[in-house]
Amino acid sequence: MLKTIQDNQRTALEILGAPVPARPPGFCTGCPERPVFGAIKLVQEQVGKVHVSADIGCHSFATLEPFKIGNTILGYGLGLASSTGLSSMMKNRSSASWAMADSGIRG
């Protein structure tokens, strides 16, 4: 099995001529979540930074470029709980928002 994998890797390298560059993690092209985080970024330009508590899954990609949104990621279904717990400690309670988990985990 290992030999087959190594043979396939050599064949791919011969066909491509060089290793394929690594692709950074991020939202898929056409993902419906991209415009949501784009909108949050636009809103932050007007009202200031907000704390975003996200669930695990694709929402965690919002913490990366180009969005750089998202402050806490606790676990599946915990974005709302995290936001609720943090909101009482913030000067502006509306500055705590949350992003619900997507279907990134399927049983």
Strand fraction:
5-15%
Strand order of the largest sheet: 2-1-3
Quote the distance from N terminus to C terminus.
Answer: 29 Å
Structural class of the helices, strands and pairings?
alpha/beta
Instruction: Report the radius of gyration as a whole number of Å.
Output: 19 Å
Query: What shape does the CA trace take?
Result: elongated
| Number of distinct beta strands | 3
Poorly predicted segments = none
| Mean of residue pLDDT values | 79
Q: Outline the biggest β-sheet.
A: 3 strands, parallel
List SSEs in N-to-C order.
HHEEHE
Helix content: 25-40%
Query: How many helices in DSSP terms?
Result: 3
Explain how this protein is built.
- By secondary structure, the chain is α/β, with parallel strands linked by helices.
- Helix content is 36%, strand content 9%.
- It has 3 helices and 3 strands; from the N terminus they run H-H-E-E-H-E.
- The chain has helices at residues 2-16, 33-47, 79-87, and strands at 51-54, 72-73, 96-99.
- A 3-stranded parallel sheet has the order 2-1-3, with helices on one face.
- The longest helix has 15 residues, at 2-16.
- The chain is elongated, with a radius of gyration of 19 Å.
- The protein starts with a helix and ends in an 8-residue tail after the last strand.
Secondary structure elements and their pairing?
Layout: H1 2-16, H2 33-47, E1 51-54, E2 72-73, H3 79-87, E3 96-99
Parallel strand pairs: 1-2, 1-3
Question: How would you concisely characterize the structure shown here?
Answer:
By secondary structure, the protein is α/β, with parallel strands linked by helices. It is built from 3 helices and 3 strands, in the order ααββαβ.
